[in-house]
Design a protein that fits this description.
TIM Barrel; 3 domains; single chain; 433 residues; eight-stranded parallel beta barrel; globular; DUS-like FMN-binding domain-containing protein
C-alpha cells in the first residue's frame, strides 16, 4: 500500500474560510507552461496566496517543506538542529546521514544517534546503506523516535560512502535496489519516505538516465518525494568539496522533472544560498528548496528570514541574545545528562561559531572562544567569558534585511529545458506500433 502524505489544513486570515488540501502540490509555473498572460496571472495569485496564508498544524502535520536544511555529515547533528529550530520554527530539518549498520549495531545505545527534542519537528531522518535487512531493521528501530519522514541517501559522493561503502550516490546506478530499499523502509514505517540524489553519476549523466532512475524508483516503490542535487557526482577520487564545485549546476534537469513527473514532488538543492534565491526558485515552480552550507555558515541571516519570507509568518523581533539564552539552557542540560559520555563544550558550541558571521567583534569572539575551550566546563561560563567581544547592538538587534540573491540564477530556463522524457515502455510501444 502506498503511503499518503496526509492532509494539511490551511486557513486564511479570515477564520471563516478554510480548505483542506490532500497531497497538495504546486501548480506548474511559467517555464513549464509558456509565457501566456493567463499563466503569469495564475502564478502570481498562487504564490501570493501561499505566502499570505496562515497554516494551522493539525494531527501532527506541519507546514509544507518549502524550505529545508540539507543533511550534512558532522554538521546537522542535535546541537545544530537545536540552534536552527530556535531561529526558524518552520524550516524542515534533516539529520546527518546515519548508516543503517550503525543503527543496527548500536541498538543498545540508540539515543546517542537518534534522540532529539520534540521542538525539532518537522524533522527527517536520513539513512544510508546497501543491505536490505539492515535498512529494514534500522527503520524499525527508528520508529520509536517519531521522525516525520525517512530519507535514503543516494547522493553522497564521498569515497568512504560511494567508494568502499558502495552506497550513497553509487546507488543511482542500481534503481531496482533503490526501489526495493524504499519499499522496505515504507513497509517498516508509518511516515512518508523520500530519496535524495544527484542528477547523474560520472558518464551516466543524461537527462533520460536521470528520468529512468526517477521512473523506476517511483513506479516500483511508494516513493513520491525526491530531493534533487542539481549536479552530477564524479567518482574519480575527487573530494566531496570538489564534487560540490566542479560538476556544473543543471537546474534545467530539475525543472524538466517537474514537467515530466507531475504526480511526484521534487525539492531542488545545490547552489542556492539565501532566502531571496529560495523564493526565486519557488516562483519558478519548485515544490521545495533545500539549502545546505549557507544555513550552517550563516545561520542567523539564512534561517532568520525563513518563517517570514518563505512561510508568510509575522516578522520576528527575536535577537541573538535571546537565542543564546535558550541555547545555553539546552547546552548545559546536555552536558549534565550524559555524565562521563557527555560531549565536550567545544562540540556543543560548534554550531555557534558562525553565529556572528560578518558582524563587528566576530574575529575577537572566535579568539576568545578558542581560549575558553581549554577551561570552561559549562556553556554558561563559556558565553559569559566570550560574549564581551560582541557589541550589545549586535546581540540585541533583530535579524536585519535579507541579503539579495543572484537575479540570473534561473535565467533562460525555458530555453534550456531538455526534451520531454519517454519511458522505455513508451519507446517500445512506438517501435512496434
Amino acid at each position: 500500500m502506498m503511503k499518503s502524505a496526509g492532509y494539511t489544513l490551511i486557513a486564511s486570515f479570515n477564520p471563516i474560510h478554510s480548505i483542506i488540501l490532500k497531497n497538495h502540490r504546486r501548480l506548474s509555473l511559467n517555464i513549464l507552461n509558456g509565457n501566456s498572460a493567463q499563466s503569469k496571472n495564475s502564478t502570481a495569485y498562487i504564490r501570493k496566496h501561499q505566502l499570505h496564508t496562515k497554516v494551522v498544524m493539525v494531527a501532527g502535520q506541519y507546514l509544507p517543506p518549502w524550505f529545508s536544511v540539507a543533511p550534512m555529515m558532522d554538521w546537522t547533528n542535535n546541537h545544530y538542529r537545536t540552534l536552527a529550530r530556535l531561529i526558524s520554527k518552520h524550516a524542515w530539518l534533516y539529520t546527518e546521514m546515519i548508516a543503517a549498520e550503525t543503527i543496527v549495531y548500536q541498538e543498545k545505545n540508540l539515543d546517542r544517534f537518534l534522540e532529539f527534542s520534540p521542538d525539532q519537528h518537522p524533522i527527517v531522518l536520513q539513512i544510508g546503506g546497501n543491505n536490505l535487512d539492515n535498512i529494514a531493521k534500522a527503520t524499525e528501530l527508528a520508529n520509536a523516535y517519531c521522525y516525520d519522514e525517512i530519507n535514503l541517501n543516494c547522493g553522497c559522493p564521498s569515497p568512504k560512502v560511494a567508494g568502499h561503502g558502495c552506497f550513497g550516490v553509487r546507488l543511482m546506478l542500481d534503481p531496482k535496489f533503490v526501489a526495493e530499499a524504499m519499499s522496505v523502509i515504507a513497509a517498516n514505517s508509518d511516515v512518508p519516505v523520500s530519496v535524495k540524489c544527484r542528477i547523474g553519476v560520472d558518464d551516466h549523466d543524461s537527462y533520460n538516465e536521470l528520468c529512468d532512475f526517477i521512473y523506476k524508483v517511483s513506479s516500483q516503490s511508494p516513493t513520491r518525494h525526491f530531493i534533487i542535487h542539481s549536479r552530477k557526482a564524479l567518482l574519480n577520487g575527487i573530494s566531496p568539496a570538489d564534487n560540490r564545485k566542479i560538476p556544473p549546476l543543471k537546474y534545467e534537469y530539475y525543472f524538466g522533472l517537474l514537467r515530466d513527473f507531475p504526480d511526484l514532488r521534487f525539492t531542488i538543492n545545490g547552489g542556492i544560498n539565501c532566502v531571496d534565491e529560495v523564493n526565486s526558485a519557488l516562483r519558478q515552480g519548485a515544490h521545495g528548496v533545500m539549502v545546505g552550507r549557507a544555513a550552517y555558515h550563516n545561520p542567523w541571516y539564512t534561517l532568520g528570514h525563513v518563517d517570514s519570507a518563505v512561510y508568510g509568518a509575522p516578522i520576528s523581533d527575536l535577537s541573538r541574545r535571546q537565542v543564546l539564552e535558550q541555547y545555553q539552557v539546552y547546552g548545559d542540560s546536555v552536558l549534565e545528562k550524559y555524565g562521563p559520555h557527555r560531549p565536550s563544550v567545544r562540540e556543543v558550541v560548534k554550531p555557534l561559531l558562525h553565529f556572528f558571521y560578518s558582524e563587528p567583534g566576530n574575529g575577537l569572539w572566535k579568539r576568545k572562544a578558542d581560549a575558553a575551550f581549554f577551561h570552561c566546563k559549562t556553556i554558561k561560563s563559556f558565553l559569559e567569558e566570550t560574549l564581551v567581544a560582541i557589541p550589545d547592538s549586535v546581540l540585541d538587534a533583530p535579524v536585519a534585511k535579507a541579503p539579495s540573491g543572484r537575479e540570473d540564477l534561473f535565467a533562460n530556463l525555458s530555453d534550456l529545458l531538455p526534451l520531454p522524457y519517454e519511458t522505455r515502455e513508451q519507446e517500445q510501444e512506438v517501435l512496434y506500433a
